């Protein structure tokens, strides 16, 4: 099971520079607790600032964690990040794959994609995405613009029909995470579940204990 912490520095207290420093700590704690992927999703940061944040994240996480950069392939490629995560309005997955092959980036570099429908999930997998993050499964403020929650039944359909790992996102809690895992999700992605945890190690242990045998 893959656990993915998606960052949101603006949800942290303090001025802008303090939020970045706090986010460094959140990233380090999450990775140290056993979160597999840290997805840097700070869309408003200009390239230089984002690059600095990603480099610091890569420096802080252990070797068995992976830093993914949301949308910005250029930043991901120049910061030793472990992959790029593409939204439905980002560069097409197939174009990114061709670029990576032409520039001979490490094979372990991941290309992930967000999908909000079965059609989009199938297309991303066919184009060569290593994984798909699908949702929102449950209601959540951060995914409200993507419409009504998909629900667990739709998640199960996507997991069954899509050939790559499907990670559930959207309103995931410790209470409803087992429903997603039983539906076939290969992992859980979240902001608040990890970033607002009093002890992220407790959250990680609880999630891993819920994984189906």
Briefly summarize what is shown:
The chain is 42% helix and 17% strand.
Write structural notes for this entry:
This protein is 42% helix and 17% strand. It has 213 residues and is α/β, with parallel strands linked by helices. The protein has a single domain (2-209), classed as Alpha-Beta Barrel (TIM Barrel), CATH 3.20.20.70. An eight-stranded parallel barrel has the order 1-2-3-4-5-6-7-8, surrounded by five helices. Strand 1, helix 1 and strand 2 (37-40) form a beta-alpha-beta unit. Helix 1 (16-32) runs parallel beside helix 2. The longest helix is centred in the first third of the chain and has 17 residues, at 16-32. It is globular, with a radius of gyration of 16 Å.
């Amino acid at each position: 099971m893959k656990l993915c912490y998606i960052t949101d520095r603006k949800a942290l207290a303090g001025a802008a520079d303090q939020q970045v420093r706090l986010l460094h700590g959140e990233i380090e704690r999450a990775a140290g607790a056993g979160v597999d992927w840290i997805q840097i999703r700070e869309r408003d940061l200009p390239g230089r600032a984002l690059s600095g944040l990603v480099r610091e994240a890569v420096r802080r996480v252990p070797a068995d964690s992976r830093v993914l950069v949301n949308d910005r392939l250029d930043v991901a490629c120049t910061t030793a990040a472990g992959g790029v995560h593409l939204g439905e309005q980002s560069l097409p997955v197939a174009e990114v794959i061709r670029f990576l092959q032409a520039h001979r980036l490490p094979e372990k570099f991941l290309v992930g994609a967000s999908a909000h429908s079965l059609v989009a999930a199938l297309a991303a997998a066919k184009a060569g995405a290593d994984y798909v993050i699908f949702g929102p499964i449950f209601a959540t403020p951060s995914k409200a613009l993507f419409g009504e929650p998909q629900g667990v039944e739709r998640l199960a359909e996507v997991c069954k029909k899509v050939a790559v790992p499907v990670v559930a996102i959207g309103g995931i809690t410790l209470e409803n995470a087992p429903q997603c895992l039983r539906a076939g999700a290969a992992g859980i992605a979240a902001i608040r579940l990890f970033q607002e945890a009093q002890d992220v190690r407790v959250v990680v242990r609880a999630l891993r204990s819920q994984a189906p045998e």
